[in-house]
Amino acid sequence: MNIRSFPRQKQTQFLFLLSLLILLLGVLPVHAAITVPGADGSDGVLHITENTVIALSEAADGDWDTDNTANAGKGIYDPEKWAVVFKYSSVTVDEGAMLSFSNHPSRAPVVWLVSGDVTINGTVSLNGQSYQSAPANSEPGPGGFRGGSGTYTIDVTGGAGFGPGGGGRQYGGSYGTEGDGGPSRYGNQSLIPLVGGSGGGGNATYSAGGGAGGGAILIACQNTLAVNGLLRSNGGSGASNLIHGGGSGGGIRLIADTLTGSGTLNALAGGGSRSGGLGRIRIERVTNDNTLVVIPDPSLVNLATETTAVLWPPADAPSVKIVSIGSENSPDDPRASFGTFGADIVLPEPEVSTTQVVIETTNVEEASIVEVRVTPRFNASYTTVNATVDTISTNPLVIRWTADIPVAIGYSAVQVKVVRP
Fold first, then answer.
1. Among 38-47, 194-203, 235-244, where is mean pLDDT lowest?
2. By residue range, what is the domain housing residue 323?
3. What is the 8-class DSSP label of residue 241?
């Protein structure tokens, strides 16, 4: 009797233990991946096996969150977001391979929205170009700004670097830190909105120009982001044997469910006789399992599971735009070029030394400083002018500001930034 019942007793005990195991497994916490808006995989798989340059100019114009199957692999340029957006199902950069980019005409930054994994065993580069001989300007990484030109002839002398932190003639560009002799830094730790580094100034006597700013990239990955190679956005160098400014480092923002790897993230200053400033790096992750080397020190955020990644500024975020210069309205999507695509605004030959610029801010306090920067391509450093309030309306708060800015024959870049109280 005992012999017959023993196997059934062991079987009963085993079933009970198995049921208990299933019960225990059932109450363990489930690790949920984060959600990346727009990560529909419609750009397909990106697998880089050899040195490759992605031409951002091939991106289709459209809304960033639309299906891109018809233009798969080439991305979408959204002028409202000022970004070239790729929605990959996965990304792999093999060891020994380097991925870089040629700029979109708008010089917009790069955004990867990835529904699967990202593995960088090689190099992803958004470096700014080092100094060029006049009349050329060094080209930034996507999302960055050009370096100043050197001196071309006795009547066409060098200029300042471009961007919110562009260095004056012969000085370094600024971004996360100030360049050597450069202006004040700009941007914020969140890298929202996404923007790159500024250019260094060219030489006022010799032909070599300044280095360009490093570019900007956002990689938002729903699963595992592994960096075992190098992800870099460094400023370009000015010449070391003469007085030129280096470009500032750019911007790198990473969002991932799991961040792993033992590679390197760099947003370094461009060298030269007067170096640029460092860039900015932002890391947001749920699970941290890496030994990355990161320079400069990053801004770190621990995400909760089931987080939805924040990609863009909220709808009610402060914003600023140039409405008009002189009697000419500004385009919605300025291309910031010197002749290749024509000027964004053409003014008649000046009869006076200044003209009026009209700026509009939304959700910006009246006590803010609205600063207009004018950077001629040649023959001068940059000029900054603070705008004054013209009109105010509420719900939402919209303020029109005006400033009188200098004008001269030739190309100049006009930019505006807000310093809030």
1. 235-244
2. 319-419
3. T
Q: What is the pLDDT of residues 273-299, one digit of tens each?
A: 899 999 999 999 999 999 999 999 999
Same domain for 308 and 324?
no
Question: Do residues 231 and 207 share a domain?
Answer: yes
Count the Cβ atoms, other than its own, within 10 Å of residue 353: 10
Write phi, then psi, for 129 (nearest 5 degrees): -75, 145
Q: Give the pLDDT mean for 360-383.
A: 96
Phi-psi region of 373 (alpha: psi -120 to 50; beta: other; left: phi over 0): beta
Look up residue 293 and give its two tokens.
């080397």
| CA pair distance 331, 109, nearest whole angstrom | 19
- The answer to whether the CB of 265 falls within 8 A of the CB of 251 is no
**Is 12 inside any structural domain?**
no
Helix (H, G, I), strand (E, B) or coil at 181: coil
Give dist(CA 239, CA 243) in Å, integer: 7
Which residue from 405, 416, 401 is spatially nearest to 371, judged by alpha carbons? 416
- Looking at the fold, whether 143 and 120 belong to one and the same domain comes out as yes
The 10s digit of each residue's pLDDT in 317-342 is 999 999 999 989 999 999 877 876 77
Whether 374 contacts 414, CB under 8 Å: yes
**Of the candidates 297, 295, 298, 279, the residue with the CA atom closest to the CA atom of residue 175:** 279
| Helix H or strand E encompassing 7 | helix 2-26
Query: Whole-prediction pTM value?
Result: 0.91
> Tens digit of pLDDT for each residue in 16-60?
233 333 333 333 334 448 999 999 999 999 999 999 999 999 999
Residues near 27 by beta carbon (within 8 Å), at least 6 away in sequence: none
Is the distance from CB of 83 to CB of 67 less than 8 angstroms? no
Other beta carbons within 10 angstroms of residue 391's beta carbon come to 10
Q: Give me the helices (H) in 177-266, please.
A: none
Any domain includes 40: yes
For residue 37, CA distances in Å to 40, 44, 81, 138, 260 come to 8, 16, 14, 35, 22
By DSSP bridging, strand 369-376 and strand 412-419 are antiparallel
Spatial distance between the Cα atoms of 18 and 286, rounded to a whole number of angstroms = 32
Measured distance CA(374)–CA(400) in Å, rounded? 19
For 69-101, the pLDDT digits (tens) are 999 999 999 999 999 999 999 999 999 999 999
Q: b vs e for 200-220, b when ≥16 Cβ sit within 10 Å of the residue's Cβ?
A: bbbbbebbbbbbbbbbbbbbb
